[in-house]
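step=encode ok
step=design start
structure_in=
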């Protein structure tokens, strides 16, 4: 895939003035020394992108959203504000709403809250608020300071930033309902976090989101102390999390759901309060070796409140009906990036030799050419040990280095995924994902663009005769979330066989599988001709997911394993019982085939 020129500026645009920031901070220091110091602490601001065309974007997961509020959007968010009382601004954004409120309501006090110190800094760079700050007319609140404005929000008009409301959904609910007896911190990051948050809320927890990868250690510690949670929950483990929450006497639940490219560091403190649940049984030993005492293999699941069989309109059928479909990343860009990392680290191992990159790329291609001969058997680890033994030893001893087996495994996984989908082109496969899939259109594949993670995926899974799953080459022993989600939507799935899959589902009864590319093509052809059999399997598969494999059920299991004295976990079911849903949605809708 052709590399594209970077679209981001290397420096802040000129309207973001450090001089203006310093003037505002000097004023803030005279009235709130503590907040002044907190705003000055280190913070990661890479989620706000300043594009070369002048646009500003905000990154949530892997998606960039327009961040500047145009006049129409700004007026829409403020049309109902007409008050002689003080006003609360939820989410400062880039300051557009704040500026409007200060100009329109000249006698009214404004309290502006944001979870993100970087956004507060950006707002303070664009306009001189020093007079408003010194007079007390403008008051800033940041992060866990939201606890100080819960009572205020009950009697004060609230203006909400339209984008940040969806990203700060846990804090918005906290502001509306107050803080309950059971409190949990949820570490930010990843699509899975929202599903876990919904489950925790169902069990009566008030949630606060902690940006553990962006904030300073001091700010993180302050958030934990003030919120005083009984438990913290992280989707995927970040080195240092166990030590962090152990130092605050808080139980940590970590549900590992994705492969990590970095090395797991040995834990430096007691791990009595850290509970790790990993989607991959082979990873249990790795965590135990790193010093974790409480480690358990726990498969993924589906949020069955979100993943449902979906009735489509005729217009939607024209878009989403597919003989075969695949939803997911082509992994093309990721493979390119990881190849560069692998080769740069190989060059460093060779003391920066000018020929190292060329040599490393040649050896890497030899390994990949062998793997390409059969994507159903993973041979890369042995080949890496053969061709790069010295380099592997070098990396394993290097602090913070990437895992070379995962780096090359991801490259090969991208090739496998493209190869398998290309071989389904003659059967009419449609793919949703990134534009890396465009390279497969020459084989008859129809690229449909990206798929929304909320409701569009349900339509695809429901309307496809066959949903295909292609596992990552280096982790053939796991069940991807995609499988649970397809089954929850009542879709028929043709999944790559694994022992793990056969342990929790009946093969041929609740799910159908393949082991090789030839078998994938053969079974896809068969079930396109025997749709009634596929529908029966899909019906039984959905029933199995509803009964045994919901995210709510998994979260309940994890809470039972760890929460003890502070907030004993009740056996009471969540407020929305996923396992007792009406059987009206118990089978795939026959008109979605």
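sequence_out=
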């Amino acid at each position: 895939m052709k590399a594209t020129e970077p679209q981001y500026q290397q420096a802040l645009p000129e309207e973001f003035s450090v001089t203006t920031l310093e003037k505002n901070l000097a004023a803030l220091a005279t009235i709130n020394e503590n907040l002044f110091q907190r705003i000055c602490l280190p913070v990661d601001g890479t989620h706000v992108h300043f594009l070369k065309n002048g646009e500003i974007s905000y990154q949530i997961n892997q998606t960039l959203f327009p961040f500047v509020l145009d006049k129409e959007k700004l007026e829409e968010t403020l049309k109902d504000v007409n008050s002689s009382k003080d006003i609360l601004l939820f989410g400062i954004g880039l300051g557009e709403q704040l500026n409007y409120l200060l100009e329109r309501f000249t006698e009214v006090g404004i309290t502006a809250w944001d979870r993100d110190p970087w956004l507060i800094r950006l707002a303070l760079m664009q306009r001189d608020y020093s007079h408003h700050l010194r007079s007390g007319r403008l008051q800033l609140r940041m992060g866990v300071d939201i606890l100080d404005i819960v009572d205020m929000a009950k009697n004060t008009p609230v203006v909400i930033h339209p984008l940040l409301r969806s990203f700060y959904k846990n804090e918005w609910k906290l502001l509306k309902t107050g803080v309950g007896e059971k409190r949990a911190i949820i570490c930010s990051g990843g699509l899975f976090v929202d599903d876990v948050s919904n489950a925790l809320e169902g069990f009566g927890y008030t949630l606060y989101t902690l940006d553990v990868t962006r904030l300073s250690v001091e700010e993180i510690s302050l958030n934990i102390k003030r919120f005083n949670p009984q438990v913290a929950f992280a989707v995927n483990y970040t080195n240092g999390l166990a030590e962090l929450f152990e130092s605050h006497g808080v139980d940590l639940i970590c549900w590992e759901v994705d492969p990590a490219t970095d090395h797991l560091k040995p834990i430096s403190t007691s791990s009595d309060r850290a509970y790790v649940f990993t989607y991959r049984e082979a990873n249990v030993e790795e965590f135990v070796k790193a010093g974790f005492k409480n480690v358990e293999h726990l498969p993924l699941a589906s949020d069955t409140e979100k993943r449902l069989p979906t009735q489509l309109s005729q217009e939607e059928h024209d878009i989403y009906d597919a003989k075969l479909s695949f939803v997911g990343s082509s992994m093309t860009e990721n493979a390119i990036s990881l190849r560069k990392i692998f080769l740069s680290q190989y060059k460093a191992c060779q003391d920066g030799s000018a020929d190292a990159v060329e040599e490393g790329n040649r050896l890497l291609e030899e390994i990949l050419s062998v793997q390409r001969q059969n994507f159903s058997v993973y041979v890369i680890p042995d080949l890496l040990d053969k061709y790069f033994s010295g380099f592997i030893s070098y990396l394993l001893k290097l602090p913070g280095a990437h895992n070379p087996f995962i780096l090359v495994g991801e490259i090969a996984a991208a090739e496998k995924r493209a190869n398998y989908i290309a071989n389904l082109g003659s059967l009419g496969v449609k793919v949703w994902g990134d534009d890396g899939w465009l390279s497969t259109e020459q084989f008859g594949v129809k690229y449909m663009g990206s798929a929304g993670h909320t409701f569009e995926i349900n339509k695809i899974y429901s309307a496809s005769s066959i949903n295909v799953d292609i596992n990552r080459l280096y982790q053939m022993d796991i069940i991807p979330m995609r499988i649970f989600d397809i089954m929850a939507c009542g879709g028929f799935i043709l999944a790559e066989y694994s022992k793990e899959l056969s342990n929790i589902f009946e093969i041929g009864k609740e799910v159908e599988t393949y082991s090789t590319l030839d078998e994938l093509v053969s079974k896809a052809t068969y079930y396109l001709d025997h749709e009634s059999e596929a529908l029966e399997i899909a019906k039984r598969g959905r029933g199995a997911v509803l009964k045994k494999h919901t995210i709510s059920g998994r979260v309940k299991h994890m809470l039972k394993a760890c929460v003890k004295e502070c907030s004993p976990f009740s056996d009471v079911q969540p407020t929305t019982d996923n396992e007792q849903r009406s059987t009206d949605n118990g089978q795939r809708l026959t008109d979605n085939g």
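step=design ok
step=annotate ok -> The chain has a mean pLDDT of 89.
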